[in-house]
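Worked example 2:
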Amino acid sequence: MDLNWQKALEDANLIFQAALRRVDPLAMMGRCLSLEASDLVVRTDCEEARICLDQFEQVLLLGMGKAAARMALGVEKILGGRITRGLVAVKQGCAENLSGVSILECGHPLPDRRSTIAAKRFLALGQDADERTLALVLISGGGSAALCAPRQGLSLAEKMETTKLLISCGATIQEINCVRKHLSAIKGGQLAKALAPATVVSLILSDVIGDDPDAIASGPTVADPTTFNDCIEIIRRYGLEDQIPRNILHYLRSGASGKQPETPKPGDRIFTRTKNFLIGTNRQALFAGKARAQQLGYAALVLTSRLTGEAKEAALMILGIGKDIASWGFPLQRPACVLLGGETTVTLRGTGKGGRNQEMALAFLAALQRSPKDAEGLLFFSASTDGTDGPTDAAGAFASSSLLARAQLAGLNPEDFLRNNDSYHFLDACAGLVRTGPTKTNVCDIQILLAP
């Protein structure tokens, strides 16, 4: 392996690991939560709140999503025996050893039977909550799949098929969650409704562009500004009217005509005692990565935390930036590091295997093959902060001229694999995958472009 390429890849891994450490849920709990006498103090980058624990007879700890178990571990270290009962629903493989909180491992990215059991247990805990109850709710990406409570008349299989269609057509997470909320009895503020009149304090780790709390894990404790009409428009926008299960489509149309109850909206009195705190974001991870890149001697720039659109189109833009750096020293002089974050989409047209980060790396290689000029020495690294990219065991992948040369020697053409959305098998064959295992955090994806 080319030594310069090896050094650049090592640097990209160090930068990525620094970004992950900044949004480690256990460390974040230590930064944002403290117990001062009988007050639980919540501090974020922009606000602070004090909750007197003496006014409550019971403290419930509820959590959902990929990071929820590690978040709960942090809360246990601070509150210890003050927690009366607890229940956390996580993606398979994301559990922690908790002392007083039960853990349920559930399906992801599609819910399963365990997800419905978890949702029923969450809603049952809400039945015992009253004015003397404090509910601490830990929310992270993956919570939508971890808790699945189909509305009356809908089945789990129908919800799973609908979610699968929305994911494969390239819908954004906001659009997917809009539909999920209106098919659920627990999402879109309905967990807060079930817990009322308890005091609800939610600590949220964001995995959505723009950090909108109502979209993260489908906003179980957040007022929902979306409507049944929005759901119908999303299905129409992606041409899914003839593919969505007929019962689901009928239910959404029934809701749009006012025959089904809407999700709780902003201003609803059930949110009077509910407070939502955003404690971890993609932006925080990116700036931690930038600081590490500077320590390694790179001129570093965080370009955006809102990268969206088709993964293969984003790859072309990023390659263009790399060529500008190589040719003109713009926007940075070498050695340079450009960081981006967000969540792209992949519109499936083939039958291959992969994820959005792998597709981006493969598209980067395909573009390099078409136009190698001014790209020598560039390294592109793209990975999901949760450690899983699509339905694979990889967090993402990397790309460079050296990797392309290795693939060409093996007779692999990136264009052929890209047409079939088969990034995983291409990158696995030429050792271009990034495997981290479950990171137990989740703040979207991170892209790193290095020009050593």
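DSSP finds 16 helices and 15 strands in the chain. The CA atoms of residues 405 and 411 lie 10 Å apart.
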